[in-house]
Amino acid sequence: MAVRQLEALNPQVHADLRVRAWQGQKPHFVQIVVSEFAMAATRCPIFVTKNQDTGEFFAGAMFGFSPGEDLASREDEGGGSFLPLDLERHGFYISDNDVAIDPQNPCFSETDGEPLFVDSQVSDALRRKQRALTLLKHGVAETADFIAAMLAAKLMEPIDISLRFDDGETLDLEGLYTVSLDALGELDDDTTLKLFRSGHLQLAYCMIGSLKQVSVLAERRNRRLTQQI
Question: Which pLDDT band holds residue 67 (cuts at 50, 70, 90)?
């Protein structure tokens, strides 16, 4: 994997730099944080999985069943689109509490997009990126707390999903975890109250409720296959 060469954002060095809005399809699985669960659950299933490099759990929204597939956006149906913070900040990072950029990211241009600086002052576009970075930074820690609470209460369980589509293709989705509804129902009162007061219980039910989106996305995939025939 190539190492990113980040540059600290500087109004003099990057005075002419512009940033393009996210274009094209989303990755089919995108990391999200707990503040995004409610919005994500209306569009796509939310799962927990492990980072292949670190082995740590993280939460993600599934937009499709295979790389490059976006079944969750409903712009063609007038339903708008959900853009996770991790995509909103694309190309921007926090480095030693400063904003840094990956200058090789294709979102940057000197001729196209919104300026990052106007008369050496932070532009509205850059403020949006800064806000996304701040929310993401705090959200990653909050999400780690939620996952730790689910693991400590023995509520997290693996879920294997097997789907067969109208074109005959079968997909088996593995390495995914969700909150067990059965285990939630067996919790003792003290643990339930603790999870409720921390806000984790609501997040757990939100995650469980999002699973209904699996069949919604599968139906949308079948409909697209039919339209291609």
Answer: confident
